[in-house]
Design goal:
alpha+beta, Chondroitinase Ac, Chain A, domain 3, elongated
């Protein structure tokens, strides 16, 4: 992963590669593109698109509205890239992995499994990278009724 990142030429464009179980987003770090990093990346798995947004002044209701058509948001702390711009790091990679417990058509995917700046992995951030997921609502009454019906049918009552 680190080798791939350090050799990637982005031409100042966001690169997104998504397969059935893993997605990789490569973000170019340029001074004129810095505003999107103070926030994060929204992943829409089916459309193979990453939308970048600035999260510095977004409250939770606004964030949920942004997630309307996306499956997960990676919220990057403001200090994450500021330090690394000084170190001449050119790219940031975010990897998201679809959990094997979920089916292909499941909307919620697993948390970020890796972030790389240039050729160095990122870990132990303070403040940490945050994740926001779109989780489908479950009607508990309907679910309970289904389970109870199945159970009574199983007991042949």
């Amino acid at each position: 992963m680190e080798t791939f990142m350090s050799n990637t030429k982005t031409n100042d464009q966001v690169i997104k590669i998504a397969g059935n179980n893993i997605a990789l987003t490569v973000l170019p770090n340029k001074a004129n593109a810095s505003s999107f990093h103070i926030g994060g990346a929204l992943e829409t798995w089916d459309s193979n698109v990453t939308t970048l947004f600035n999260d510095s002044d977004v409250d939770s209701d606004q964030r949920l509205k942004q997630l309307e058509t996306s499956e997960a948001a990676v919220l990057l702390p403001a200090n994450l890239l500021t330090k690394n711009w000084n170190d001449n790091v050119t790219n940031t990679a975010i990897i998201i992995h679809r959990d094997y417990y979920n089916s292909k058509r499941e909307e919620v995917i697993s948390p970020v499994i890796g972030v790389v700046l240039g050729d160095a992995p990122v870990y132990k951030l303070d403040p940490p990278v945050k994740m926001v997921f779109k989780v489908p609502e479950v009607n508990f009454d309907s679910f309970l009724h289904s389970v109870l019906s199945w159970f009574l049918e199983f007991l042949d009552i």
